[in-house]
Write a structure and sequence with these properties.
InterPro entries: Thioredoxin-like_sf
Low-confidence stretches: 124-129
Distance between the termini: 40 Å
Number of domains: 1
Structural class: alpha/beta
Largest sheet: 5 strands, mixed
Mean pLDDT: 91
Organism: Lysobacter enzymogenes
Shape: globular
Protein name: Thioredoxin
Strand order of the largest sheet: 1-3-2-4-5
Number of helices: 5
Number of strands: 5
CATH topology: Glutaredoxin
Length: about 130
């Protein structure tokens, strides 16, 4: 099924698809920063986030940050795992440790500022040379 608002989002903004059954495999304890984007097909608030991310794509691309995603409508066990009450939701991990959650969509400025703060924080893993 094709999404209506941003059908090519994941081609334009590459993220690795992860399912709940394999989540631990995608979160190795290596100290690297990862963002898990939980969304749903034709979710209006998810479409707003995707649209804003596409408008300023370069602001969301960090060499030391890996993006993961899952459509929780297709994988409801992921939503249950994180106790979701709404989407989009973004979970930030350093290695296997969950650092926090950005619930709903705060807008480009607030999102980027939050990630920049985490990138600069203690225990930051260095990007591979």
């Amino acid at each position: 099924m094709t999404e209506l608002a941003h059908p090519r989002f994941f081609w334009q903004f590459p993220m690795r698809l992860v399912r709940h059954a394999r989540l631990d495999e995608f979160l190795p304890d290596d100290g690297h920063l990862r963002i898990l984007f939980l969304w749903g097909k034709d979710c209006p608030n998810c479409d707003i986030a995707k649209g804003q991310m596409l408008l300023a794509q370069q602001r969301f691309e960090w060499l030391d940050v890996e993006w993961l995603h899952d459509n929780v409508y297709e994988d409801p066990s992921m939503a249950t795992h994180f106790g979701l009450h709404g989407i989009p939701a973004f979970f930030v991990f350093r290695g296997a440790k969950k650092l926090g959650r950005i619930g709903q969509w705060p807008g480009t400025e607030a999102f980027v500022a939050a990630i920049e703060k985490l990138r600069a924080g203690p225990g930051v893993a260095q990007a591979p040379a």
